[in-house]
Amino acid sequence: MRFVFIIIAFICFSSATVAQTTVQQLLTEQQSHPIGIATTQPRFSWQLASAQRGVKQLSYEILVASSRANLEQDKADIWQSGEVRSDLSILIPYTGKPLASNVYYYWKVKVKTSKGETIESKPVFFTVGFVDPKNWKAKWIGYDKAFAWDSVTQWSRLSARYYRKEFGTAKKIKKAYVNLVGLGMYELLINGKKIGDQVLAPAPTDYRKTVLSNTFDVTEHIIQGKNAIGVALGNGRFFTMRQNFKPQKINTFGFPKLLLQLDMIFEDGTRQTVITDETWRFTADGPIRTNNEYDGEEYDATKELGNWAQAAYNDAKWLKANIVPAPTGVITPQPNRHMKIMQRIQPVAINKINGDKYILDMGQNFAGWLQLKVKGEKGRKVMLRFAESLQPDGELYTANLRDAKVTDVYTLKGEGEETWHPTFVYHGFRYVEITGWPGTPVTSAFEGHLVYDQMQSTGNIRTANETINNIVKNAWWGIASNYKGMPVDCPQRNERQPWLGDRTQGAYGESFLFNNGALYAKWLDDIQQAQTAEGAIPDVTPAYWNYYSDNVTWPGAYILIAEMLYHQFGDQQVLVKHYPSMKKWMDYMRGKYLKNNILTKDKYGDWCVPPEDLKMIKSQDSTRTTNGQLIATAYYYRLLQIMKNFAVITGNKSDTLAYVKLSADIKDAFNKKFFKADAGLYDNGTITANLLPLYFGIVPANKKMQVVETIARKLKADNMHISTGVIGTQWLMRGLTQNGLEQAAFTLASNHTYPSWGYMIQQGATTIWELWNGNTANPQMNSQNHVMLLGDLLTWLYEEVAGIKNHTQSVAFKTISMKPALHQQLPHAQATYQSPYGTIVSDWKNDKDIFTWKINIPANTTALVQVPVKAHANIMESGRPANEADGLRFVKQEKGYAIYEVQSGEYAFESK
């Protein structure tokens, strides 16, 4: 969530039980090494939890103090908001004294409720990172050359660099902080111990624009006497995977480099600072011989450096660190949480292929790495090669990996059992080819580590249909696999790029499964920084590839994801921050490509429409192809509607008239050019051609039912199967359901023959494919762990099937709209969603003529609940007539639903 991005990602709420309501934690982050937040103006959020009905917050008071003791005594010497009469409990801005870096601040909130309670949270802390450039005293160090064993070519090989510094302290430490930027990736050690549980840090950026710093509290690791700091630097995206190769396409940034500052505060109030400078020593002749995201990591344990990060280590043969130029990017504290090992996975089988070659099956496609435990003679090389699937003969299928070698090599040191996993790379895989193993490998010698951005799983949904349940499961694994400090398209081949088009609507659906607001807020910053002076936005951001093709559909993710962050998480600040850049892009596209009110530029069309031949990547049948100008113009119209709302929200009301006028002109031109009124269809009649104007509100009101009927006929002609690509599928399930075709939507969701999501499962998929025919298509483009084809499926499941939706007049689920779309073949659905205000539950069963529905509305929210029934007098709630129940107010009967305004609490409806 955006408010996690600002403050809660780095602190936790503690619950304090007072009366029957509690102030409850949103996320738990009690780490000994908190990341310093990326702003001196944090925003505060909290949740109320209560079993009572109708609990509302009447007022709040936020207190911030310089010590826990002060806060416990209500001495808010930093900031005291005073009692504020408001029911808002998310994203409350700080307006106190200026906050300093490397200082612990403690805060709590007091809340008065409608039940006469006054409740209070426990004190929790946060720190601020190096927001002010003046904080930095350190110098950039590095070595801008390759060593003899390295290779700076298309097939780059660059060993890790190890930096160290010893220092002494004569006094007792009170507090100690490390701020550092380690490019491309780092591991930080003090006195031989790794600091923090982060991996693949820091998050990737366009290093020409921004480099991210991390902050750690290292107080417990500094001793009186001699100490040592060690930092290992990997390549990451900084020293890119393919050097001196297609420079017109692939951007490169330089050799790994380090900026580090250790600030120590002693008990007597004095201070000491250790910085990176020319007194540091380094070597690249260590155990990590190469680390390349595409090709893998090679680790030679015979070259381990011993206690290199401890004091009294002999580094006489090490080189003197060089002072090197700083990257051009601005140093900014990392705004989103680190990647971590989020789950450990046990293999399900291991099979011998021939000789000493074995295939390990993890049972699940995922992204991360394999940890091994091995015992053997010194110098033996164990090779691990990764893939998503197997060939018919049981060998790895690697054709779809293109030129990525995806191979790890571990050279044994021969000293008993050795445990290892790579440090600076990750793989997308289910299967691992093992060669060189001493003896016969067994599954217990291996463990898979799922790696993605540390974030809460916020949603869970199950239905009576196992195909749909398995699709959701596969979606979860695919989404998690592709969160890598930015959303990437795939984790396995030589691509792994943050394509905008993949997440245009996908981010919205993902937000029901994951607390992804911080990740996407950071990504919007990446997009903003990639914008050219003229206003163009690339298709890939950060711009590791130079793809400025001036589409509407791909860069449109900038606006649509901003809308998601506001709608789902209530983040208005993100709109204020990005509105000028979004407007600039809209103006750029209009000025360059809008001809007679039709957007004339489109590159990708309805990408990845199911082809007519299972071996094709792209359909050659023109009847399946949607006009690119139709797509671009419809999308631009949709974006104008959003920008009109943004203009009002951000105080740019003067822009609204221009948006309204242009919208009307485009709508008129669109219908004149593409609508065939006599036939009731748009252009060549594809589902996408008709769905976009229908969902976006372009269809003339008196022709709407004709277009709906056209879509219904086309679905029947397609044998009730998916015929849309990435663009159409982003609106498909909601578009059908909201226009009376909910049974058709359910059929598409539950199909298990080609083309469908269920077909993937029938073919053994454990994630979502890139292509509807990903098991048979040309290997040039058939990633088996993509999420772009999910479209709006997850959104549909939560909002339409489970009936959990943010009300159109609300943000962040302050008011919830609950209306399940019932399906003849679906008797049950159960979902939970951890909204910014608390957990929402919808659990319904439709058994013959009786509908039962258990719901939970979080404290401090209300809901508009629509219960399916012929007459509201037939509705019971918790065993009594609904009209007599506490917390309910009947509003009206409409189209087979009884509508109630419902206060917070748990309810059990039954209708006939």
UniProtKB/TrEMBL annotation:
Residues of the Alpha-L-rhamnosidase six-hairpin glycosidase domain: 457-801
Residues covered by the Alpha-L-rhamnosidase concanavalin-like domain: 352-451
Keyword Hydrolase: yes
Gene Ontology MF term list: hydrolase activity
Boundaries of every Bacterial alpha-L-rhamnosidase N-terminal domain copy: 171-342
Domain Alpha-L-rhamnosidase C-terminal: 808-878
UniProt-listed InterPro entries: 6-hairpin_glycosidase_sf, 6hp_glycosidase-like_sf, Alpha_rhamnosid, Bac_rhamnosid6H, Bac_rhamnosid_C, Bac_rhamnosid_N, Ig-like_fold, Rhamnosid_concanavalin
One Pfam family it belongs to: Bac_rhamnosid6H
Enzyme class (EC, first level): hydrolase
EC number(s) recorded for this UniProt protein: 3.2.1.40
Catalyzed reactions: Hydrolysis of terminal non-reducing alpha-L-rhamnose residues in alpha-L-rhamnosides
Keywords: Hydrolase, Signal
Secretion signal, residue range per the UniProt entry: 1-19
PANTHER family per record: ALPHA-RHAMNOSIDASE (EUROFUNG), ALPHA-RHAMNOSIDASE (EUROFUNG)-RELATED
Name by which UniProt lists this protein: alpha-L-rhamnosidase
Organism listed in the record: Terrimonas rubra
